[in-house]
Amino acid sequence: MMDKEERKITQKKIFFGAAIQGSQKRDERAKRHQFIINSIKKKGFSVVTEHTTGKTYEESIAKLQQAIGPLPPPGIERRIFVRNAMINAVEGDITAAIFEVSVPSLGTGIELAHAYLRPRMNLPKIPVLALYEKDFWPNKLSTMIQGISTANIPQFSLMEYSEERDLESTISSFLCTLQKPSEL
Q: Could you tell me the residue range of the domain that residue 30 belongs to?
């Protein structure tokens, strides 16, 4: 029987990325992000960081520190530290990456690009799922994401959803295509 530490090591990790800075209603999107993360965990996967579920800036910082360790004081050193930690996470030992892209975000876009471009960096290819809530953002989804072709990036999937049950079903189907995590 595996102890808690061994289970943690063998559990498959998912990188989850989503906008938090530009969201007009941080708490509303935080609830959606929590729903996505809970859907991932229900399938037996772990999530690298859950900081996008913070309903306030302070809560997001606390969750980020929980995932990546103590942060430098606010300022440019902190920004560099967080950026590097997020890039290291998406280029690290993960099974797949899931992004909620309904709210425009340069940071999320950079993370998403690092995820699907891993083979260009001599890193293992991973499946990447981008989730978009239909008609959520008034100007629709970015052409830079809509224009990712599965002909060129076969490990990339863009899925539109309207309701949480659609979202949960999409996540479940995506995760079922991955090698099953060890039984816990």
A: 12-175
Residue 2 within any structural domain of the chain: no
Helix (H, G, I), strand (E, B) or coil at 159: strand
Contact (Cβ atoms closer than 8 angstroms) between residue 128 and residue 154: no
Which residues on adjacent β-strands are paired with residue 47? 14
**Tokens 């998406």, residue?**
90
Residue 78 contacts residue 45 (beta carbons within 8 Å): no
Q: How many CA atoms lie within 13 A of 46 on its CB side?
A: 16
What pTM did the predictor assign?
0.89
**Closest C-alpha to 125, from 115, 133, 140:** 115
Task: Give per-residue pLDDT as tens, 108-153.
Answer: 999 999 999 999 999 999 999 999 999 888 778 889 999 999 999 9
Q: What is the largest CA-CA distance in the chain?
A: 52
**Total of domains in the chain:** 1
Question: Of 71, 55, 49, whose CA–CA distance to 23 is shortest?
Answer: 55
CATH number of residue 95's parent domain: 3.40.50.450
At 48 the three-state DSSP class reads: coil
